[in-house]
Amino acid sequence: MGIVVQKYGGSSVADAESIKRVARRIVETKKAGNQVVVVVSAMGDTTDDLIDLANQVSPLPPARELDMLLTAGERISMAVLAMAIHDLGHEARSFTGSQAGVITDAEHGRAKIIDVTPGRIEEALAAGAIAIVAGFQGVSQTTKDITTLGRGGSDTTAVALAVALKADVCEIYSDVDGFFNADPRIEPRARKVPRISYEETLEMAAQGAKILHLRCVEYARRYDMPIHVRSSFSDKEGTWVTSADKVGTDDSQESTMEAAIITGVAHDRSQAKVTIVGVPDKPGEAAAIFRAVADAQINIDMIVQNVSAAATSLTDISFTLPRGEGQTAMTALSRLQDSVGFAGLLYDDSVGKVSIVGAGMSSSPGISARFFEALSDAGVNIEMISTSEIRVSVVVAETQVEDAVRAAHAAFDLGSDEVEAVVYGGTGR
Amino acid sequence: MGIVVQKYGGSSVADAESIKRVARRIVETKKAGNQVVVVVSAMGDTTDDLIDLANQVSPLPPARELDMLLTAGERISMAVLAMAIHDLGHEARSFTGSQAGVITDAEHGRAKIIDVTPGRIEEALAAGAIAIVAGFQGVSQTTKDITTLGRGGSDTTAVALAVALKADVCEIYSDVDGFFNADPRIEPRARKVPRISYEETLEMAAQGAKILHLRCVEYARRYDMPIHVRSSFSDKEGTWVTSADKVGTDDSQESTMEAAIITGVAHDRSQAKVTIVGVPDKPGEAAAIFRAVADAQINIDMIVQNVSAAATSLTDISFTLPRGEGQTAMTALSRLQDSVGFAGLLYDDSVGKVSIVGAGMSSSPGISARFFEALSDAGVNIEMISTSEIRVSVVVAETQVEDAVRAAHAAFDLGSDEVEAVVYGGTGR
Questions:
Q1: Do residues A272 and A345 both lie within one domain?
Q2: How big, in percent rounded to 5, are the helix, strand and coil portions of chain A?
Q3: Residue B135 counted as domain residue
Q4: pLDDT of residue A265
Q5: A296 and A151 within one domain
Q6: Which residues hold substrate (chains A, B) (predicted)?
Q7: In which band, very low, low, confident or very high, does the pLDDT at A338 lie, cut at 50, 70 and 90?
Q8: Amino acid A370: pLDDT
Q9: How far, in Å, are A33, A242, A264, A429, B55 from residue A246 at the CA level?
Q10: Total domain count, chain A
């Protein structure tokens, strides 16, 4: 009898009716002959409501207490889900992160999992019960305080438990059918991808596709735990995220996807572009600039330095960063203007990033050229370019993001004849 | 430096503003030179809301999961209270019942405290922090599952922690100024009692006065922990509940209260009266009747058996019980009618119980007589009588309860000249 770990996000357990629906699905999995462990997020808007409450008493609540507060959210959803399963005639026992053996460091609000010791979960499974575990939380190894794992924490809890329990699969449920090779709201012919490698998933996620959090995919890749991303609203197969050697090994008709050069098109409208104009082209200048940015705790993404004009020995350096950090970065850089001696700073938050990702491209020459030609034919102007082994990204004007996504999708034959009626969305925390 | 344990009920922490007010009071106690441990209930209606949610998925939720769910309530209030204290510039750390070392048996929903091992609380105090503890909850010694303590659980948590920490006092805060010698809504001249013994408090509570839960008073009496019942809305002294030898030992003008023969008048409108008519007056009949009632899990209160009429050798037996259990009791007794051979059953839920309580009465003859005369003068008809060492209770028609309370209050000179503008109410769970 295999072990299946299932994770349900906040939108899947938003109210009593949703919880009952999820309970029926869990019971079906159990009746199909599996031992079932369920990781659950807080119901719907609970987390936001709790944060609002905290802010009513304190503008900057202490992190330890904020973690204590927020973990009440999963405590509610997991207990109610256990009740709903019980009401269907099956035994279910809920466990906090601490009880489930999710041991973390002491970094409140963004704790890292150090160890998973799921003895109580194994006992519950051995007794024939379904185990329900609070996602997103653990207990500090050193202080014994309750911690939360931060963004992607529930997905990561599910994968970590699946690894510790040697589960067959970690199923991540949300309100979408799986991973699509482009945003169906932009490109109606976007297709569901049946299988994708950990590496491609990481690139897609890093390039703005709301598929799975990087952190959970990294954990799964490290321990080679297959993830099945699927919808809690249907029984359809979703997308399997596995090691690259397993992608395309199934016999389904869709396995022809394996031959596709690129897996999907990702886009990201959350970034802004900073350009430092007229930087003296001599050693140490770029280092001084990026040291200042790093000291201001700014997460930069793409960096492009143009070849300097020979006549002036001046160059322009551009980088992208999250829009929310633009003001901080501009302030930090302004302070450097005299010492570094650059001519000026430009800030543009009307940009978007469009990327093509696929393991196939490293062995297929001309992919970048085909991408850029497609953009050019669609009248899209490229502002910055960055590439990796399995990805090509461009920065374009925000108004041209949708045109760029559709052009790339068409250029690489990613379309299906059938229009998928789904929402391209993300998993919860 | 002394340790003060304070308990705040749900109405004292109903919203963000109330929590901030409570935080200020806690900080004042700390600044006055005390080490402070605070036990807190769930905010306002949180517990009821959580029970509603549970009932939406399951008509009879499993007790283990209901406990897991309900404990989310205190988790929220304690974390937010710690944040509010933090915002005032003082360190506060919140602890679940389990973290605070509240060890219980495994009876979910009505667990009993077996042990209190407050090592983490002592560490927090030693570090100069204020410790905030979730009331109403603990962890099972055997199953390690989260438990709730049931009615009066938060008050009991506070007293148990005060005992384990060797605190100077356990302060129980609610929205009333203390304990009054009659319900001020019925008798406007009711006076606040400055001191009362554990035993009198137990009698008053058992007779329907909503002062403190029996369980918490019993715990305090066993370990001689003084309780100070007071309002979170004022700085006034409330009512001290102490051992009998300490009642009346203070020097305040109010200590003359010690000389009062009776401490207060309690009343209870929650009961009904069952009368079994025409019971054969021979050995074993009463035993059969009360065995049937006990087997039906009915909590009976007063029992009165009249002398049998010599001519018939038949007697009537009456008892009182909570109204909610009336139907069950009548059904259980009906089944006995043939075997016991009584003539009939009467049920009356339009009754009320009025009691006078006071340690002084055992050494003062004529108390009962004065009480009954006062009732008679007020036109109140007595239906049943029951007495203990420090209490006399009567059952009267429900419509005459208020007249009876006022008559008793006047007969024993309990009135003050000043009318107290307070609500006679209860503490939370």
A1: yes
A2: 40, 25, 35
A3: yes
A4: 92
A5: no
A6: 47, 74
A7: confident
A8: 85
A9: 25, 6, 18, 28, 45
A10: 2
Q: Say what angle helices A46-57 and B16-31 make with each other, to 10 degrees.
A: 50
Of B95, B66, B76, B86, whose CA–CA distance to B13 is shortest?
A: B76
CATH label of the domain that carries residue A208: 3.40.1160.10
Same domain, residue pair A29 and A158: yes
For the segment B121-139, what is each residue's pLDDT rounded down to a tens digit? 999 999 999 999 999 999 9
Taking each helix axis from N to C end, the angle separating A16-31 and B46-57, rounded to the nearest 10 degrees, works out to 50
Q: In angstroms, how far apart are the furthest CA atoms of chain B?
A: 81
Buried-state track A416-427, b at ≥16 Cβ within 10 A, e below 16: eeeebebebebb
The model carries a pTM of: 0.79
Of A259, A294, A322, at which residue does a domain stop?
A: A259
Average pLDDT over residues B135-162: 95
The confidence score (pLDDT) of residue B24 equals 97
Do A60 and A13 have their domain in common?
Answer: yes
A62 → closest Cβ in B20, B53, B83: B83
Q: Which has the higher per-residue pLDDT, A133 or A327?
A: A133
| The one-letter amino acid at A406 | R
Q: Shortest CB distance from A68 goes to which of B94, B120, B144?
A: B94
Last residue of a domain, one of A230, A259, A288: A259
Strands A113-116 and A102-104, by their bridges, are: antiparallel
Amino acid at B267: H
What kind and span of H or E run contains A173?
Answer: strand A169-174
Place of tokens 């026992």: A93
Instruction: Give the residue numbers spanning the domain of A244.
Output: 3-259
> pLDDT tens digits, residue range A66-115?
999 999 999 999 999 999 999 999 999 999 999 999 999 999 999 999 99
Length of chain A: 429
User: How many residues does this entry show for chain B?
Assistant: 429
pLDDT digit string (tens) for B247-263?
755 444 344 344 457 88
Contact by Cβ (8 Å): A149, A104:
yes
Structure tokens at A398: 């925000």
- Residue A317, pLDDT above cutoff 70: yes
Q: Return the residue of A nearest to B93 by Cα.
A: A65
- Side-by-side strand order, sheet with A3-8: A92-95, A130-134, A35-40, A3-8, A169-174, A227-231, A239-242, A195-197
CA angle B267, B273, B279 (to 5 degrees): 145
The C-alpha atoms of residue B199 and residue A340 are separated, in whole angstroms, by 82
Examine residue A429 and state whether it is found in any structural domain, yes or no: no
Residues A179 and A77 in one domain: yes
Task: Compute the nearest-CA separation of A91 from chain B (Å).
Answer: 9
ipTM reported for the complex, 2 dp:
0.77
Q: How far apart are CA B180 and CA B412, in angstroms?
A: 14
Task: Yes or no: say if B40 and B97 are a contact pair by the CB < 8 Å rule.
Answer: no
Chain B, nearest residue to A13 by Cα: B57
Is the residue at A425 inside a domain? no
Crossing angle (nearest 10°) for helices A63-87 and B63-87: 160
User: Are the beta carbons of B87 and A56 separated by less than 8 Å?
Assistant: no
Q: Which residue shows structure tokens 């009716």?
A: A17
Mutate to test the interface with A, among B65, B71, B87 (most CBs of A within 10 A): B65
Contact call for B68 and A144, based on CB within 8 A: no
> Has residue A206 been placed in a domain?
yes
Within this chain, do residues A253 and A161 fall inside the same structural domain, yes or no? yes
Residues A175 and A85 in one domain: yes
